Amino acid sequence: MRKILMLIAAFALATGAFWVTMLTSPPRLEAKVQTRIDTRELTLKVHLEDGQPSDAF
Description:
By secondary structure, the chain is mainly alpha-helical. It has two helices and no strands.
């Protein structure tokens, strides 16, 4: 029984510490859009004449 109470107390302490941190100094990072891969640019750089007829590109 003592182990369960210690586990609950540790969980409550960790939860409290987390929320105090989030409320007093929250993260200030902003999400940003990731650039996408331009497949057209990639295919334009491929030398099609060097490939075999069965190649995808």
